[in-house]
Amino acid sequence: MKSLGRYILDRVFQMLPILFFISVVTFVLLYIAPGHPLAYYLDPSLSPEELSARSEALGLNQPLYIQYFKWVGGLFRGNLGWSILRGRPVEEVIMERIPATLLLMGTSLIISVSVGVLLAVISAIRPYSLLDSFLTFLTFAGLSVPGFFLGILAIYIFSGRLEWFPVGGMSTAGQDFSFFDLLRHLFLPSSVLSFINICGFFRYTRSGLLEVMDEDFITTARAKGLSETAVVVRHGLRNALAPTVTLLGIALPSLIGGASVIEVVFSWPGVGTLMVTALYQRDFPVLMGCMLITTFFTLVGGLLADIVYALLDPRVNIGG
Amino acid sequence: MKGFRVLYIAVVFLVVFSVIGVASENGPEYGGTLTIGIPVAPQGWFNPLISSSKYDLDVAKHIFNGLIEIGPDMEYIPSLAKEWEFSEDGLEWTFYLRDDVRWHDGKAFTTKDVNFTFTTLLHPKYFGGKGADFIFIEGAREFKSGEAQFISGIQVIDDYTIKFRLTESFAPFMESMTFPILPEHLLKGVPVTELDKASFNLHPVGTGPYKLERYVNGQYVELKANEEYFVRRPYIDRIIYKIITNEDAMVIALGNGEIDIADIQPKYLEYLRDMSNLNIYEYPNYGEGYAYMGLNLRKPVFQSKTVRQALAYAIPRELFVQTILKGYGEVANVPISPLNWAYSDELNDYPYDPRRAAELLDEAGWVQGDNGLRAKDGRRFEFDLMYPAGDKIRGSLSAIIQGTLRSLGIKVNLMPTEPNALAASTFPKLFGKTSVESDFDAYILAWTLYGADPDPYIIWHSQSPYNGIGFANLRSDELLHKGRSTLKLDERKKIYWEWQTLINDELPYVFMYFKKSVVGVNKRVVGIQPCAFGITPDICDLWLNLN
């Protein structure tokens, strides 16, 4: 049986071809899509000569594979290229947005995991009770309503009618940083995101728990005379968490990549908003940068989830 | 159409007078922060040499000045230049600059800065696309091609006098003098090819009424009043452009007072009318330009003028303006705005007249068959119509076109196309696809108009790359050339009237509408005076009622 360290190393090496493959596909798709990065601001005062000089300066005239290898070459030197429409290094443009996304996604992830799992445990202790049915219904509704709608509804009620919170952004424009101001701005988007995510965590954990509760070792625990709460929390939960961990693994890249829809609805200055803008503008280098980072974290998320499985459940043998 | 404009002026006057009524009670006060909501984050290129984004240029407008500016009635007024003169033949232009202007960093503004700015625009490696109209300066071509070391036609007489010699008479030259002047001392060290990466772009230094205080990526841009501004100190201390990426949230922010000013879509008017803290202004916005249906004139079906005219009669454009635009627009029949002095009012209006359209189609040989569809020589009248995907207004317009043409026996296939791809495929000459004949049938887009000069050459001349539909008409080319080389206004006007009559008859585009802007403004903002370019001709005129 291989050691955990060796296993991680293997997995990391497996990640490289996947990263390569995804970057090629994304790159090719972006570049063969109809349109042109310089068509975004089509201005009749631009002459075709100037356009082609600009294309040349940006390397857009070269064959696709050369452009790709230049991009990869840049990666090895630690740079992601220059933003076409911002004239700044891509890593700088993205790094500027990461704290905002990390804050929003991190807050809502912590809230949604803890609340989601807690509610699932409460539900699972008395399955099919009135409370369980109510929570199941509520979370089902939550998963069915699109996020942008919940967001706009929240803005309409809490900013438009009650005027408790600002409509968006991360700080009051023109004011120096204050923690309270940040919280006021964070409240609505993180609440909406948490609500959506709680629903997911709740449903996965609850069904995981209910499945486990029929197992023999639970019967044994009950036979020992443990209270139902102790049975669910101490014996059931640990074994039922696998789907929840998968969900967490999937959620990890969003910590960096953001949730585009919610970010745009709340004018949150994160990576998600940046990606949407860059997509409209055809700022390819920025898009490639965002894709690369999200792909990387998706793979890392998957790896971490596998490792945590093993720690939770001794039956899983990661060494294979 | 004329009656309509008179009515509009009356409405504006009414609004202006009521505002002045309030103003005279308190008198203007200094101070406060004006917050303007914008839907897209500026790129962070507050440098007019390279930026083409509306949101960056809106900010830059407050930071920089041109030698001259455009006044509220679209006339040229002094700015950095206090006066100017030109020779009878229009080949020599002399500008006398103010001697009391300082850059935001305290350095004196001189003709060196003017020379630097215009020379950069003509530099062989310059890529920003703002230099086209400067090419008529003597020696500009030689300099641009790298044959000459300097531009012989730009003559710095002294620190405050500069002279330009042109190779041919060129009326829009005056327009190019509105180009913002940049500081030589801060930019001369930046290679022209690296202008897009200059730190100046994020830390601009100008001569204008406001200085850039803070740019928070993705959140807001903050400007601070330049108390030493050479015209006068602006009343409002700070202007903030706040980015709100969601249009519903933008309207809500206007309502709850988070922002003071925002452009709004007519569909939100009902919601906003209940808001007691807002005034709603509407004005025909010159910059909105005109929306049109472009027809690929290389396709046999669209080569017939009769068919193009039939299409204009067949589309209920007035109905569209009244319903979808809720009346905030005006049907267009030429590419020159009714706000411009060159606009002709002797035009065929092409009112909605399906019977006339059917007659014209019959006349052109497209007759309705048993299946209800029109055909000629065995070919069905069917075409693809592209429109910008996600654009609800143009989507509705396209659907109306599809429906009404269907009832006339013409089959239109709607093709929502991503805006960027749409632009690239309708102007193939621009993106190195000269050899391939452009293959689109028809599309819906709009041209914005800017500046006060009406010169439509660049879009309509047969050789221009922006003439994507392939319109070629000798008389039109002649008139376009004459129009830009004639200096006397009344003569120019006659030329453009003749040109408009020609375009109005040929209809290379089926013109759709000129759009009006609707702006919501918090009542605490005083001094709003809508003009062709926005809700105020001069930001220094606005002040805030701070009580």
Count of all domains of chain A: 2
Poorly predicted runs of 5 or more residues of chain B: 1-24
Q: What is the β-strand count of chain A?
A: 0
Structural class by helix and strand composition of chain B: alpha+beta
Descriptors:
heterodimer; A: 320 residues; mainly alpha; MetI-like fold; 73% helix; B: alpha+beta; eight-stranded mixed β-sheet
In short:
The complex is a heterodimer of chains A (320) and B (547). By secondary structure, chain A is mainly alpha-helical.
Give structural notes.
- The complex is a heterodimer of chains A (320) and B (547).
- Chain A has helices at 4-32, 48-57, 64-76, 90-125, 130-144, 147-161, 179-212, 216-223, 228-240, 242-257, 260-265, 271-281, 284-312.
- By secondary structure, chain A is mainly alpha-helical.
- Chain A has 2 domains: 4-76, no CATH class; 97-312, MetI-like (MetI-like fold, Orthogonal Bundle), CATH 1.10.3720.
- The termini of chain A are close together.
- The mean pLDDT of chain A is 86.
- Chain B is of the alpha+beta class and 547 residues long.
- In chain B, 29% of the residues lie in helices and 21% in strands.
- Chain B has 16 helices and 23 strands.
- Chain B has helices spanning 2-26, 54-63, 111-121, 140-144, 173-176, 184-187, 247-255, 269-273, 305-314, 317-323, 354-363, 392-407, 419-426, 457-460, 474-485, 489-506; strands at 33-38, 68-70, 76-78, 81-86, 92-97, 154-158, 161-165, 210-216, 220-225, 238-243, 261-263, 278-284, 290-295, 329-331, 367-368, 374-376, 379-380, 382-388, 411-417, 442-447, 509-522, 525-526, 543-544.
- In chain B, the strands form 6 sheets. In chain B, strands 11, 12, 13, 14, 18, 19, 20 and 21 form an 8-stranded mixed β-sheet that branches. Chain B has a 4-stranded mixed β-sheet with strand order 1-10-9-8, with helices on both faces.
- In chain B, strand 8 and strand 9 form a beta hairpin.
- In chain B, helix 9 (305-314) packs antiparallel against helix 11 (354-363) and helix 15 (474-485) runs antiparallel to helix 16.
- Chain B is globular and about 80 Å long.
- The relative contact order of chain B is 0.15.
- The interface between A and B is large, with 58 and 64 residues.
